[in-house]
Amino acid sequence: MLSFATVVGARGMVSRTVPASAVRLSSTATFKIYRWNGEDASQKPFMQEYTIDKSKCGPMVLDALMKIRNEQDPTLAFRRSCREGICGSCAMNINGTNALACLCSIDDVTGSSKGTPIYPLPHMPVVKDLVVDMNNFYDQHAAIEPWLKVDDPPQDREILQSKEDRAKLDGLYECILCACCSTSCPSYWWNGDRSYLGPAVLLQAFRWISDSRDDYRVERLKSLAENEMKLYSCHTIMNCSSVCPKHLQPAKAIQKLKSLIETEVSDK
Predict the structure, then answer these.
(1) Distance between CA 111 and CA 100 in Å, rounded?
(2) 94 by DSSP, 3-state: which?
């Protein structure tokens, strides 16, 4: 006789009734996670397999990682903070694509009998397991001076901005600096440790250049133009725009920067 089981969804709400055999087949998920301890020079990187019971785990990959660390292997290292796609801490390569573990559904990436691979962000120095060294990335961000530069700011009020000028920042200010876009870019793989700033930082550069309250628009553009590697290493591969967890368009911002340099800097 065919037996049935009730599948319980989020917050205990019943979603549907399915054959019990189907529940058993889909109740586990297997992950193959990159492991390496940077403090042990003798150890080579390896992939370690973990299996979890999805019926006793939250819906996201970050939930699975936390369950693995809490119940199976407390030595597993990864970053996490907000669990809401705001901080960008849990960026990693999941099933071949850069993503935030807190926004990546287990059901969307599992199903293969070989298990779902999870790696640290590509071409970044690994500190331990899924934790990468972000220092170079943050230094590049600091180099564009990501703050308002105003010669004579008002002392008794905020710096005013029209609604139209404020709207120009939409699609730019939302960047959370997770580095998913930059570490998916082959040009950044090849030149990120030199002068190429990468998609995330260039998106932020365009954000400050587009801000009507800033007095150093031309100077910012000249800074990007003085070294061709900073900007022109972009070959419009478009990986950056396809993986952004906030659905932003770094490649479009980079093309606009190139156009602005042609019109506002090259002829001066």
Answers:
(1) 19
(2) strand
